[in-house]
Amino acid sequence: MARVLLSVLILDALLCCSQAVRDNKGTEFILTFPENFQRDRNEPKLFIACPHPTGAEVTITLPYRNGHTERVRVNYGRVEEVELNRVAVELRGSEKSDRGGRAVHITSDVEIVVYGVFAELKSSDAFLALPTDVLGTEYYAACSSIARNRNQEGFRDMPSQFGVVGVHDGTTVTIIPSQDVEFDGRDYRAGRSFTVGLDRFETLQVQATEDLTGSKITSDQPVAVLSGNVFAYCKPMDEHQSGTGDHLVQMIPPVDTWGKEFVTVPLTKHRRGDLFRVVAARDNTQVDVTNENTMTLNAGEFWEIDVPSDEYRHVTSSEPVLLVQYSKTGAVDGTATDPFMMIIPSVAQFEAEYAFSTVDLLYDPSRTTHHINLVTRSADKAGLRLDGQQLPSDTDWHDVPGTRYAAAQLTIDRGTHTVRHMSPIVTIGLLSYGYTNLESYGYPGGLRLARIAASCSTTTPVPADRVDNDCDGRVDEELLNGIDDDGDGLIDEDLAIGNCADHRGHYETCLLERCRNLVP
User: What mean pLDDT comes out for the span 2-6?
Assistant: First the structure.
Protein backbone atom coordinates (compact mmCIF):
# COMPACT_ATOMS: atom_id res chain seq x y z
CA MET A 1 0.00 0.00 0.00
CA ALA A 2 2.82 2.42 0.84
CA ARG A 3 4.43 1.82 -2.56
CA VAL A 4 1.11 2.47 -4.36
CA LEU A 5 0.57 5.69 -2.40
CA LEU A 6 4.10 6.86 -3.17
CA SER A 7 3.55 6.18 -6.90
CA VAL A 8 0.38 8.28 -6.83
CA LEU A 9 2.20 11.11 -5.08
CA ILE A 10 4.97 11.00 -7.66
CA LEU A 11 2.55 11.23 -10.56
CA ASP A 12 0.70 14.08 -8.88
CA ALA A 13 4.03 15.85 -8.44
CA LEU A 14 4.85 15.34 -12.09
CA LEU A 15 1.51 16.87 -13.03
CA CYS A 16 2.31 19.88 -10.86
CA CYS A 17 5.60 20.31 -12.67
CA SER A 18 4.20 20.10 -16.19
CA GLN A 19 1.06 22.17 -16.60
CA ALA A 20 -0.53 22.59 -20.04
CA VAL A 21 1.94 20.39 -21.88
CA ARG A 22 1.39 19.89 -25.61
CA ASP A 23 1.05 16.24 -26.53
CA ASN A 24 -1.61 13.67 -27.46
CA LYS A 25 -2.93 13.37 -23.90
CA GLY A 26 -5.73 15.73 -22.89
CA THR A 27 -8.96 16.37 -21.03
CA GLU A 28 -11.07 17.36 -24.08
CA PHE A 29 -11.28 15.85 -27.57
CA ILE A 30 -13.55 16.70 -30.50
CA LEU A 31 -13.38 14.35 -33.46
CA THR A 32 -15.38 12.53 -36.12
CA PHE A 33 -15.15 9.46 -38.38
CA PRO A 34 -14.63 9.90 -42.14
CA GLU A 35 -16.64 7.57 -44.35
CA ASN A 36 -15.93 3.84 -44.49
CA PHE A 37 -17.34 2.11 -47.57
CA GLN A 38 -18.27 -1.14 -45.83
CA ARG A 39 -21.87 -1.30 -44.61
CA ASP A 40 -21.84 -4.39 -42.39
CA ARG A 41 -23.28 -2.28 -39.58
CA ASN A 42 -20.25 -2.54 -37.33
CA GLU A 43 -20.17 0.55 -35.17
CA PRO A 44 -17.18 2.87 -34.78
CA LYS A 45 -15.57 2.83 -31.36
CA LEU A 46 -13.50 4.90 -29.01
CA PHE A 47 -10.62 3.23 -27.21
CA ILE A 48 -9.78 5.26 -24.09
CA ALA A 49 -6.72 4.72 -21.91
CA CYS A 50 -5.80 6.56 -18.71
CA PRO A 51 -2.12 6.98 -17.75
CA HIS A 52 -3.08 8.41 -14.35
CA PRO A 53 -3.14 5.81 -11.49
CA THR A 54 -6.36 7.17 -9.99
CA GLY A 55 -8.25 6.48 -13.22
CA ALA A 56 -10.55 8.85 -15.09
CA GLU A 57 -14.21 9.79 -15.23
CA VAL A 58 -14.97 10.29 -18.92
CA THR A 59 -18.05 11.77 -20.59
CA ILE A 60 -18.83 11.08 -24.28
CA THR A 61 -21.45 13.24 -25.99
CA LEU A 62 -22.88 12.84 -29.51
CA PRO A 63 -24.37 16.22 -30.48
CA TYR A 64 -26.19 14.66 -33.46
CA ARG A 65 -28.38 12.69 -31.10
CA ASN A 66 -29.60 15.76 -29.23
CA GLY A 67 -26.73 15.57 -26.80
CA HIS A 68 -26.82 11.82 -26.14
CA THR A 69 -24.34 11.31 -23.31
CA GLU A 70 -22.55 8.30 -21.90
CA ARG A 71 -20.30 8.30 -18.84
CA VAL A 72 -17.61 5.69 -18.33
CA ARG A 73 -14.99 4.95 -15.76
CA VAL A 74 -11.52 4.31 -17.25
CA ASN A 75 -9.19 2.50 -14.91
CA TYR A 76 -5.43 2.80 -14.93
CA GLY A 77 -3.72 0.11 -17.03
CA ARG A 78 -6.86 -0.84 -18.96
CA VAL A 79 -8.57 0.31 -22.15
CA GLU A 80 -12.25 1.17 -22.08
CA GLU A 81 -14.04 0.51 -25.39
CA VAL A 82 -17.06 2.71 -26.12
CA GLU A 83 -19.28 1.79 -29.05
CA LEU A 84 -20.75 4.75 -30.94
CA ASN A 85 -23.86 5.11 -33.06
CA ARG A 86 -22.58 5.03 -36.64
CA VAL A 87 -25.27 7.33 -38.03
CA ALA A 88 -24.41 9.91 -35.38
CA VAL A 89 -20.65 10.02 -35.97
CA GLU A 90 -19.80 8.94 -39.54
CA LEU A 91 -19.38 11.54 -42.28
CA ARG A 92 -21.11 10.75 -45.58
CA GLY A 93 -20.64 12.25 -49.03
CA SER A 94 -18.92 15.48 -50.04
CA GLU A 95 -20.91 18.00 -48.07
CA LYS A 96 -21.48 19.78 -44.82
CA SER A 97 -23.24 17.40 -42.45
CA ASP A 98 -26.87 18.03 -41.52
CA ARG A 99 -28.48 18.11 -38.07
CA GLY A 100 -25.65 19.92 -36.37
CA GLY A 101 -22.83 17.68 -37.54
CA ARG A 102 -21.33 14.28 -36.72
CA ALA A 103 -18.90 15.20 -33.97
CA VAL A 104 -17.89 13.19 -30.92
CA HIS A 105 -17.15 15.23 -27.79
CA ILE A 106 -15.03 13.61 -25.07
CA THR A 107 -14.17 15.19 -21.72
CA SER A 108 -12.32 13.82 -18.69
CA ASP A 109 -11.37 14.91 -15.20
CA VAL A 110 -7.72 13.90 -15.83
CA GLU A 111 -5.66 13.50 -18.98
CA ILE A 112 -6.48 10.49 -21.12
CA VAL A 113 -5.38 8.92 -24.41
CA VAL A 114 -8.07 8.44 -27.07
CA TYR A 115 -8.15 6.40 -30.28
CA GLY A 116 -10.82 6.36 -32.96
CA VAL A 117 -11.35 2.82 -34.25
CA PHE A 118 -13.43 1.97 -37.31
CA ALA A 119 -13.09 -1.82 -37.50
CA GLU A 120 -15.36 -2.93 -40.32
CA LEU A 121 -15.18 -6.41 -41.81
CA LYS A 122 -12.31 -6.32 -44.35
CA SER A 123 -12.07 -2.53 -44.06
CA SER A 124 -10.49 -1.33 -40.80
CA ASP A 125 -8.22 1.43 -39.59
CA ALA A 126 -7.70 3.49 -36.45
CA PHE A 127 -6.26 6.86 -35.51
CA LEU A 128 -4.67 8.56 -32.54
CA ALA A 129 -6.92 11.43 -31.44
CA LEU A 130 -5.47 14.88 -30.72
CA PRO A 131 -6.90 16.95 -27.85
CA THR A 132 -8.46 20.36 -28.47
CA ASP A 133 -5.60 22.25 -26.80
CA VAL A 134 -3.17 21.29 -29.59
CA LEU A 135 -5.44 21.83 -32.60
CA GLY A 136 -4.50 24.53 -35.09
CA THR A 137 -5.64 26.67 -38.00
CA GLU A 138 -3.51 25.33 -40.90
CA TYR A 139 -3.49 21.76 -42.24
CA TYR A 140 -2.70 19.75 -45.37
CA ALA A 141 -4.50 16.51 -46.16
CA ALA A 142 -2.70 13.19 -46.63
CA CYS A 143 -4.56 10.57 -48.67
CA SER A 144 -3.64 7.76 -51.09
CA SER A 145 -4.07 6.65 -54.70
CA ILE A 146 -7.60 5.79 -55.80
CA ALA A 147 -9.11 2.28 -55.85
CA ARG A 148 -11.05 2.21 -59.12
CA ASN A 149 -13.91 0.12 -60.50
CA ARG A 150 -14.93 -1.51 -57.22
CA ASN A 151 -18.66 -1.13 -57.92
CA GLN A 152 -19.64 -1.79 -54.30
CA GLU A 153 -21.90 -0.05 -51.80
CA GLY A 154 -22.85 2.62 -54.35
CA PHE A 155 -19.23 3.44 -55.26
CA ARG A 156 -17.35 2.80 -58.45
CA ASP A 157 -14.13 4.68 -57.75
CA MET A 158 -13.41 4.81 -54.01
CA PRO A 159 -12.88 8.48 -53.03
CA SER A 160 -10.03 10.03 -51.15
CA GLN A 161 -11.37 12.36 -48.48
CA PHE A 162 -10.83 14.68 -45.57
CA GLY A 163 -13.13 15.79 -42.76
CA VAL A 164 -13.18 18.96 -40.67
CA VAL A 165 -14.79 19.46 -37.25
CA GLY A 166 -15.67 22.83 -35.71
CA VAL A 167 -14.33 23.48 -32.22
CA HIS A 168 -15.70 27.03 -31.77
CA ASP A 169 -18.87 28.74 -32.97
CA GLY A 170 -18.56 31.10 -35.91
CA THR A 171 -15.49 29.46 -37.51
CA THR A 172 -14.73 30.14 -41.18
CA VAL A 173 -12.92 27.28 -42.93
CA THR A 174 -11.10 27.91 -46.21
CA ILE A 175 -10.39 24.91 -48.43
CA ILE A 176 -8.04 24.78 -51.41
CA PRO A 177 -8.50 21.30 -52.94
CA SER A 178 -5.60 19.70 -54.81
CA GLN A 179 -8.10 18.13 -57.23
CA ASP A 180 -11.42 19.14 -58.76
CA VAL A 181 -14.17 18.45 -56.23
CA GLU A 182 -17.92 18.64 -55.94
CA PHE A 183 -19.02 19.90 -52.53
CA ASP A 184 -22.60 20.51 -51.44
CA GLY A 185 -23.74 20.23 -55.04
CA ARG A 186 -21.28 22.80 -56.42
CA ASP A 187 -18.12 22.21 -58.48
CA TYR A 188 -14.77 23.65 -57.38
CA ARG A 189 -11.63 23.53 -59.47
CA ALA A 190 -8.29 22.34 -58.15
CA GLY A 191 -6.31 25.18 -56.58
CA ARG A 192 -9.34 27.47 -56.21
CA SER A 193 -10.45 28.24 -52.66
CA PHE A 194 -13.93 28.05 -51.19
CA THR A 195 -15.16 28.74 -47.67
CA VAL A 196 -17.52 26.95 -45.31
CA GLY A 197 -18.85 28.18 -41.97
CA LEU A 198 -18.73 25.78 -39.03
CA ASP A 199 -20.07 26.15 -35.52
CA ARG A 200 -18.90 24.03 -32.60
CA PHE A 201 -19.48 20.31 -33.35
CA GLU A 202 -20.48 20.95 -36.96
CA THR A 203 -18.67 18.81 -39.53
CA LEU A 204 -17.92 18.62 -43.23
CA GLN A 205 -16.34 16.12 -45.58
CA VAL A 206 -14.71 16.71 -48.96
CA GLN A 207 -14.35 13.75 -51.33
CA ALA A 208 -12.89 13.28 -54.82
CA THR A 209 -12.16 10.35 -57.11
CA GLU A 210 -8.63 11.68 -57.49
CA ASP A 211 -5.97 11.82 -54.78
CA LEU A 212 -6.64 14.79 -52.46
CA THR A 213 -3.19 14.71 -50.84
CA GLY A 214 -1.89 18.26 -50.52
CA SER A 215 -5.30 19.90 -50.15
CA LYS A 216 -4.99 22.89 -47.83
CA ILE A 217 -7.39 23.58 -44.96
CA THR A 218 -7.13 26.84 -43.01
CA SER A 219 -9.47 28.45 -40.51
CA ASP A 220 -9.82 31.57 -38.40
CA GLN A 221 -10.20 29.44 -35.24
CA PRO A 222 -8.79 25.99 -34.42
CA VAL A 223 -10.45 22.97 -36.05
CA ALA A 224 -9.85 19.22 -36.14
CA VAL A 225 -8.89 17.59 -39.47
CA LEU A 226 -8.87 13.91 -40.44
CA SER A 227 -7.95 12.54 -43.85
CA GLY A 228 -7.46 9.31 -45.79
CA ASN A 229 -9.47 7.21 -48.25
CA VAL A 230 -12.82 5.47 -48.17
CA PHE A 231 -10.89 2.38 -49.32
CA ALA A 232 -7.42 2.00 -50.85
CA TYR A 233 -4.78 -0.55 -51.88
CA CYS A 234 -1.65 1.55 -51.13
CA LYS A 235 0.44 0.40 -54.05
CA PRO A 236 2.89 2.89 -55.61
CA MET A 237 0.92 5.53 -57.48
CA ASP A 238 2.48 4.61 -60.85
CA GLU A 239 1.19 1.03 -60.51
CA HIS A 240 -2.28 -0.35 -61.16
CA GLN A 241 -4.19 -0.25 -57.86
CA SER A 242 -5.41 -3.76 -57.03
CA GLY A 243 -5.23 -6.49 -54.41
CA THR A 244 -6.69 -6.47 -50.92
CA GLY A 245 -7.69 -3.03 -49.67
CA ASP A 246 -8.69 -1.23 -46.52
CA HIS A 247 -10.15 1.96 -45.09
CA LEU A 248 -7.52 4.67 -44.40
CA VAL A 249 -7.74 7.42 -41.79
CA GLN A 250 -5.46 9.52 -39.58
CA MET A 251 -6.03 12.64 -37.50
CA ILE A 252 -3.68 15.22 -39.01
CA PRO A 253 -1.45 17.39 -36.79
CA PRO A 254 -1.47 21.14 -37.55
CA VAL A 255 1.37 22.55 -39.64
CA ASP A 256 2.91 24.45 -36.73
CA THR A 257 3.81 21.07 -35.14
CA TRP A 258 5.48 19.55 -38.22
CA GLY A 259 9.20 18.74 -38.15
CA LYS A 260 12.41 18.66 -40.18
CA GLU A 261 14.01 15.33 -39.20
CA PHE A 262 12.55 11.82 -39.29
CA VAL A 263 13.60 8.17 -39.14
CA THR A 264 11.77 5.54 -41.20
CA VAL A 265 11.41 1.96 -40.00
CA PRO A 266 10.07 -0.96 -42.09
CA LEU A 267 6.82 -2.65 -41.12
CA THR A 268 7.24 -6.21 -39.91
CA LYS A 269 5.87 -9.06 -42.08
CA HIS A 270 6.10 -7.09 -45.33
CA ARG A 271 8.81 -8.18 -47.80
CA ARG A 272 8.17 -5.77 -50.70
CA GLY A 273 8.70 -2.47 -48.94
CA ASP A 274 6.58 0.34 -47.54
CA LEU A 275 5.35 3.58 -49.07
CA PHE A 276 6.12 6.96 -47.53
CA ARG A 277 4.79 10.37 -48.50
CA VAL A 278 6.47 13.66 -47.63
CA VAL A 279 4.00 16.56 -47.76
CA ALA A 280 5.31 20.15 -47.86
CA ALA A 281 3.64 23.22 -46.36
CA ARG A 282 6.06 25.86 -47.66
CA ASP A 283 7.44 26.68 -51.11
CA ASN A 284 10.99 25.64 -52.00
CA THR A 285 11.22 22.93 -49.35
CA GLN A 286 14.37 20.85 -49.90
CA VAL A 287 13.93 17.22 -48.82
CA ASP A 288 16.80 14.74 -48.41
CA VAL A 289 16.24 11.01 -47.93
CA THR A 290 18.90 8.34 -47.54
CA ASN A 291 19.62 6.66 -50.92
CA GLU A 292 17.47 9.15 -52.85
CA ASN A 293 18.22 12.33 -54.79
CA THR A 294 17.22 15.62 -53.16
CA MET A 295 13.66 16.69 -53.99
CA THR A 296 12.32 20.25 -53.98
CA LEU A 297 8.64 20.62 -53.06
CA ASN A 298 6.33 23.61 -53.02
CA ALA A 299 3.44 24.06 -50.60
CA GLY A 300 0.88 21.28 -51.06
CA GLU A 301 3.18 19.09 -53.15
CA PHE A 302 4.21 15.63 -52.00
CA TRP A 303 6.90 13.05 -52.72
CA GLU A 304 6.00 9.35 -52.63
CA ILE A 305 8.94 7.02 -51.89
CA ASP A 306 8.93 3.21 -52.07
CA VAL A 307 11.41 2.03 -49.42
CA PRO A 308 12.60 -1.61 -49.38
CA SER A 309 11.72 -3.72 -46.35
CA ASP A 310 15.34 -4.03 -45.22
CA GLU A 311 16.19 -0.31 -45.23
CA TYR A 312 16.09 2.21 -42.38
CA ARG A 313 16.25 5.76 -43.66
CA HIS A 314 16.89 9.31 -42.49
CA VAL A 315 14.64 12.11 -43.79
CA THR A 316 15.54 15.79 -43.38
CA SER A 317 14.04 18.95 -44.83
CA SER A 318 14.78 22.67 -45.00
CA GLU A 319 11.22 23.52 -43.96
CA PRO A 320 8.75 21.57 -41.78
CA VAL A 321 7.04 18.63 -43.53
CA LEU A 322 4.51 15.90 -42.76
CA LEU A 323 5.70 12.29 -43.16
CA VAL A 324 3.17 9.47 -43.60
CA GLN A 325 3.85 5.72 -43.84
CA TYR A 326 1.57 3.34 -45.77
CA SER A 327 1.29 -0.41 -45.41
CA LYS A 328 0.85 -1.90 -48.89
CA THR A 329 -1.78 -4.41 -49.90
CA GLY A 330 -0.81 -7.90 -48.78
CA ALA A 331 -1.17 -9.00 -52.40
CA VAL A 332 2.23 -7.49 -53.29
CA ASP A 333 4.14 -10.02 -51.20
CA GLY A 334 1.61 -12.73 -50.33
CA THR A 335 1.48 -11.78 -46.65
CA ALA A 336 -1.48 -11.75 -44.24
CA THR A 337 -1.37 -7.95 -44.09
CA ASP A 338 -3.47 -5.10 -45.42
CA PRO A 339 -3.20 -1.35 -46.09
CA PHE A 340 -3.16 1.35 -43.44
CA MET A 341 -1.65 4.80 -43.10
CA MET A 342 0.01 6.36 -40.06
CA ILE A 343 1.63 9.67 -39.20
CA ILE A 344 5.39 9.44 -38.47
CA PRO A 345 6.36 11.89 -35.70
CA SER A 346 9.48 13.94 -36.27
CA VAL A 347 12.47 13.22 -34.04
CA ALA A 348 11.83 16.52 -32.24
CA GLN A 349 8.33 15.32 -31.28
CA PHE A 350 9.38 11.95 -29.83
CA GLU A 351 7.99 11.30 -26.35
CA ALA A 352 9.79 10.12 -23.22
CA GLU A 353 7.02 7.66 -22.29
CA TYR A 354 3.94 6.12 -23.87
CA ALA A 355 0.68 4.50 -22.82
CA PHE A 356 -1.05 2.91 -25.80
CA SER A 357 -3.40 0.13 -26.83
CA THR A 358 -3.75 -2.48 -29.55
CA VAL A 359 -6.91 -2.77 -31.71
CA ASP A 360 -9.06 -5.89 -32.13
CA LEU A 361 -9.64 -6.81 -35.77
CA LEU A 362 -12.71 -8.66 -37.04
CA TYR A 363 -12.15 -10.85 -40.08
CA ASP A 364 -9.76 -13.42 -38.61
CA PRO A 365 -9.11 -12.62 -34.92
CA SER A 366 -7.18 -15.86 -34.34
CA ARG A 367 -4.46 -14.69 -36.75
CA THR A 368 -4.22 -11.10 -35.53
CA THR A 369 -0.74 -9.96 -34.58
CA HIS A 370 0.25 -6.66 -32.92
CA HIS A 371 3.57 -4.86 -33.33
CA ILE A 372 5.52 -1.76 -32.41
CA ASN A 373 8.42 0.01 -34.11
CA LEU A 374 10.83 1.77 -31.75
CA VAL A 375 13.42 4.46 -32.50
CA THR A 376 15.90 5.95 -30.03
CA ARG A 377 19.52 7.01 -29.91
CA SER A 378 21.85 4.02 -30.19
CA ALA A 379 23.52 4.90 -26.90
CA ASP A 380 20.19 4.83 -25.04
CA LYS A 381 18.82 1.41 -26.00
CA ALA A 382 19.62 -0.27 -22.70
CA GLY A 383 17.39 2.05 -20.68
CA LEU A 384 14.17 1.25 -22.54
CA ARG A 385 11.36 -0.46 -20.65
CA LEU A 386 8.29 -2.19 -22.10
CA ASP A 387 5.56 -2.62 -19.48
CA GLY A 388 8.18 -1.96 -16.82
CA GLN A 389 10.54 -4.68 -18.01
CA GLN A 390 13.70 -4.67 -20.09
CA LEU A 391 13.19 -5.39 -23.77
CA PRO A 392 13.56 -9.05 -24.78
CA SER A 393 17.18 -10.12 -25.01
CA ASP A 394 16.74 -11.10 -28.66
CA THR A 395 15.52 -7.64 -29.74
CA ASP A 396 17.14 -6.96 -33.11
CA TRP A 397 18.35 -3.36 -33.32
CA HIS A 398 19.31 -1.72 -36.61
CA ASP A 399 21.47 1.38 -36.82
CA VAL A 400 19.99 4.09 -39.05
CA PRO A 401 22.68 5.08 -41.58
CA GLY A 402 24.09 8.57 -41.17
CA THR A 403 22.50 9.10 -37.75
CA ARG A 404 23.04 8.28 -34.08
CA TYR A 405 19.66 6.49 -33.99
CA ALA A 406 18.76 2.81 -33.90
CA ALA A 407 15.40 1.13 -34.54
CA ALA A 408 13.73 -2.16 -33.71
CA GLN A 409 10.52 -4.07 -34.40
CA LEU A 410 8.73 -5.92 -31.58
CA THR A 411 5.70 -8.20 -31.55
CA ILE A 412 3.49 -7.51 -28.53
CA ASP A 413 0.43 -9.03 -26.90
CA ARG A 414 -3.09 -7.72 -27.29
CA GLY A 415 -3.99 -5.04 -24.74
CA THR A 416 -2.61 -1.93 -23.07
CA HIS A 417 1.12 -1.28 -22.89
CA THR A 418 3.64 1.28 -21.69
CA VAL A 419 7.07 2.19 -23.03
CA ARG A 420 9.45 4.57 -21.31
CA HIS A 421 13.13 5.21 -20.73
CA MET A 422 14.90 5.31 -17.40
CA SER A 423 16.19 8.82 -18.13
CA PRO A 424 13.67 11.69 -18.38
CA ILE A 425 15.58 13.37 -21.23
CA VAL A 426 15.77 10.34 -23.52
CA THR A 427 13.00 10.38 -26.10
CA ILE A 428 11.60 7.51 -28.15
CA GLY A 429 9.65 7.16 -31.36
CA LEU A 430 6.88 4.56 -31.17
CA LEU A 431 4.50 3.31 -33.86
CA SER A 432 1.76 0.79 -33.06
CA TYR A 433 0.17 -1.41 -35.72
CA GLY A 434 -1.42 -4.78 -36.30
CA TYR A 435 -2.59 -7.21 -38.97
CA THR A 436 -4.86 -10.05 -39.69
CA ASN A 437 -5.88 -11.47 -43.04
CA LEU A 438 -7.65 -8.64 -45.00
CA GLU A 439 -7.54 -6.11 -42.13
CA SER A 440 -5.01 -3.89 -40.39
CA TYR A 441 -4.50 -0.72 -38.34
CA GLY A 442 -1.66 1.65 -37.54
CA TYR A 443 -1.02 4.91 -35.67
CA PRO A 444 1.72 6.64 -33.66
CA GLY A 445 1.73 5.43 -30.08
CA GLY A 446 1.85 9.09 -29.05
CA LEU A 447 3.78 12.26 -29.81
CA ARG A 448 4.65 15.66 -28.51
CA LEU A 449 2.91 18.50 -30.30
CA ALA A 450 5.16 21.42 -29.52
CA ARG A 451 4.77 24.33 -31.95
CA ILE A 452 8.28 23.81 -33.31
CA ALA A 453 7.32 25.00 -36.82
CA ALA A 454 5.79 28.27 -35.59
CA SER A 455 7.71 31.51 -35.13
CA CYS A 456 9.72 31.20 -31.93
CA SER A 457 10.88 33.51 -29.15
CA THR A 458 13.06 32.29 -26.30
CA THR A 459 11.20 31.79 -23.04
CA THR A 460 12.01 30.96 -19.42
CA PRO A 461 12.33 27.17 -19.08
CA VAL A 462 9.73 25.32 -17.05
CA PRO A 463 10.40 21.59 -16.61
CA ALA A 464 8.47 19.34 -19.03
CA ASP A 465 6.43 22.21 -20.51
CA ARG A 466 6.63 20.82 -24.10
CA VAL A 467 7.77 24.29 -25.21
CA ASP A 468 10.87 24.96 -27.33
CA ASN A 469 12.30 27.40 -24.80
CA ASP A 470 15.61 27.93 -26.65
CA CYS A 471 14.16 27.87 -30.22
CA ASP A 472 16.40 25.02 -31.42
CA GLY A 473 13.58 22.84 -32.78
CA ARG A 474 13.67 20.50 -29.77
CA VAL A 475 11.79 20.44 -26.49
CA ASP A 476 12.68 19.40 -22.93
CA GLU A 477 16.18 18.19 -23.77
CA GLU A 478 18.07 19.36 -20.63
CA LEU A 479 18.29 18.34 -17.00
CA LEU A 480 18.53 21.04 -14.32
CA ASN A 481 22.06 20.00 -13.40
CA GLY A 482 24.46 22.72 -14.57
CA ILE A 483 25.60 20.55 -17.50
CA ASP A 484 25.15 21.04 -21.25
CA ASP A 485 23.21 17.77 -21.76
CA ASP A 486 22.38 18.30 -25.46
CA GLY A 487 25.79 19.64 -26.50
CA ASP A 488 24.59 22.96 -27.97
CA GLY A 489 26.78 25.21 -25.78
CA LEU A 490 23.89 26.22 -23.48
CA ILE A 491 23.16 24.97 -19.98
CA ASP A 492 19.74 24.15 -18.46
CA GLU A 493 17.97 26.14 -21.22
CA ASP A 494 15.08 23.74 -22.04
CA LEU A 495 14.25 21.45 -19.17
CA ALA A 496 12.85 17.97 -18.78
CA ILE A 497 11.28 16.99 -15.48
CA GLY A 498 14.34 17.40 -13.26
CA ASN A 499 17.93 16.45 -12.49
CA CYS A 500 17.20 12.96 -11.18
CA ALA A 501 18.75 10.88 -13.97
CA ASP A 502 22.00 10.53 -12.02
CA HIS A 503 20.24 9.40 -8.85
CA ARG A 504 18.74 6.07 -9.92
CA GLY A 505 19.02 4.66 -6.41
CA HIS A 506 16.50 7.14 -5.01
CA TYR A 507 14.75 8.28 -8.18
CA GLU A 508 11.28 8.59 -6.62
CA THR A 509 12.52 10.75 -3.74
CA CYS A 510 14.50 12.87 -6.18
CA LEU A 511 11.46 13.55 -8.36
CA LEU A 512 9.34 14.53 -5.39
CA GLU A 513 12.01 16.87 -4.07
CA ARG A 514 12.54 18.45 -7.48
CA CYS A 515 8.83 19.19 -7.84
CA ARG A 516 8.61 20.62 -4.32
CA ASN A 517 11.36 23.07 -5.23
CA LEU A 518 9.65 24.11 -8.46
CA VAL A 519 6.09 24.62 -7.26
CA PRO A 520 5.51 27.75 -5.11
Answer: 40
